[in-house]
Amino acid sequence: MKKIIVIAALCLAALSAKAQNCPYDLPEGAVMETFTYAVKGPDTLKLDFFRMKDDTAPRPTMILSFGGGWWTGSRYSMAPEMYLLKGFNVACIDYRISLERFMFVDSNVDGYKYVRAITRAVEDTYDATRFLLDRSESLGIDAGRIVLAGCSAGAINSVMAEYLLCNDDPIATSRLPEGFNYAGVISGAGGVWKLGMSHPVYKWAPCPHMFIHGTVDNIVPFGEKLVPESNFGCWGPAFLSEYFRKMGWRFDTWFIEGMNHDAASIPSLNKSMVEETRHIYDFLDKLSI
After folding, report:
1. Cα separation values, 184 from 5, 109, 200, 268, Å
2. N or C: which end of the chain has fewer CB within 10 A?
């Protein structure tokens, strides 16, 4: 089975990957700014924003959300390089991590703890989005071309952010401008995780999704996983893509036969992973942004 390796960055923070050290692998000419986008109790939430130096044109923007089961992880684990080379601005964001440990989805899972952690993370995703929207002119962001992408827990955050937005959830409507929607979602081993046994229903048509998943994922279900004891369910891309197909909504899939949760890493890979980059670029090209 193909093993996906996340290429670690080796440098410390700065405006230019070449001029100074930074914790990311950036192309020549990319600059980074770090912002505090929210302070919530003991949590100071930051985002690292990347664009090409002296480029002031409004650009599509990718918001990258790290994985780690809502109990660990860092925005520094995300790789903005391949998106910058595609012409995107990129924001790698913090979000609150609210679990003491990751609990596999089984009969002992506490669904309420999961929902609390996911809700907080999605709220933070919305707040980071609003922060960027409010500064779209100065940062060169096209407000109509913002894409969410994430790995594992970050993928679930991204899918859930669009799911709640499409259902007029107050968590979304109280934070985002009226009429706003994301331009796309890239899910590296994500899905809809929620309380209740009923399958997810979208009130409004969602933006295009790209579902990347290993068919034998042992952490995030590829299909559907219900935990009646905890009144909790997980609906993976096998379910969601069929739902989208029946509804006539736009989506792409890359289901990797025989791969486990390693597929989660794909949205954060270095551009040298040629096959992975091609699949993601193909999806972004279809968005026409």
Report:
1. 25, 30, 19, 16
2. N
